[in-house]
Sequence to fold (433 residues):
Amino acid sequence: MITRVYRSMALWLALAAVLISAAMAVATYFFEIARVDQAIVELAVGEARTFRNMDHDLLVRAMVNGGGVSEDEVGQRLQHFLETREVNAEGHFVVAELYDAGRRPLGEAVQQPAGLTPESRLSVPHRFPDGESPWYDKVMVDARLYIRVVVPLRDQQARSLGYFEGVYHVADSRIASIRARLETTVLLVVGVVLCTTLFLVPVIIGVNRAQWSLSLRLMRANIETLEVLGDAIAKRDGDTGAHNYRVTLFAIRLGEAVGLPAERIRGLIKGAFLHDVGKIGIRDAILLKPGKLTAEEFAEMQGHVAHGVDIVSRGSWLHDAADVVLYHHEKFNGSGYLKGLSGDEIPVTARIFAIADVFDALISRRPYKEPLPFDDALAIISEGAGSHFDPVLVAAFQRIARSLYDTVAGQEDQRVERMLLDLTDTYFRVVAV
Fold:
């Protein structure tokens, strides 16, 4: 059980690590792409401002003074700029165009790569920025990255000189460097997440193992409390705890035989231990009376059912024991007490327990009787089918009664107790998980 739980935990942690790694990788990828975009745009803007510094006089004459420079001269200066900057290892402009402050074109130059021109290969129309920040757009042409940028140009007195538009080719070596850094960053993030998960797995398993052990000890303590309380009531009633052990064993096995769910069997176990707990509220004069009870005394004895329900209802862990405690004296034909329920109105755990309780009473030695042989006891149970007992449950009990009797009858109390504890642990360990 523990190994299966830890294996499941490890699988869930591995899945969580993969999902977190994927999410972090995607987030890191887009974060790095944004950083790369910014870095590349800054390169392009820096190159545009280099042109401004190189040809400041031309710009002043062409843009501020309103003329005196032909379109051919502007184009030649732009062409010269493209050719001299082509050696830049980071990248260079392949298209350059100037606009005056009124956004009218003054000239252009193209260091044409495979037919790339501002008109033919860049489908998105450019925009002139209103403030200081440049406008840019990315485009892939023939598996190469280009940045189209429009940069406002100003002189040292912050006068508007116009606009520089360019198509900046990012060098292949720069792209390779960016890609390598991006891959390294993503792998680093994924590695950190996975290493953290690997570190946390033994820590979490260790903590869970401690919690598991504590849960089992607490559950064992709860079961022992049920045993002690059941034994105390049995002794007050002139019996021993062995009755509780046997009847609980019988009830569990019958519940298993009819396919009762594990959560209902847990309630059946609690109810079997505490079925007579309400007798603590019955006077000794009635509880220990050797002879037959009067009608008034029997009515008071019936009150132990209500006392028992009141006791178990005070603890949330015992709520599922209430069905057995309250209804174990009901009969299938409706002649029982306290409610006079019949048939399926009686909870199934109470119907199961009724068979186990009566069968154990028949095969056990009591101060007022000797134990009945197995066949006689089973015959009485069979005769009660349809009246005292659920006939379907009686049929199931008939199939397992012989093996139960051979296993339990005549055994020492300590051995029966050990058998019961081993059996109950299989149910309450599931809860502890």
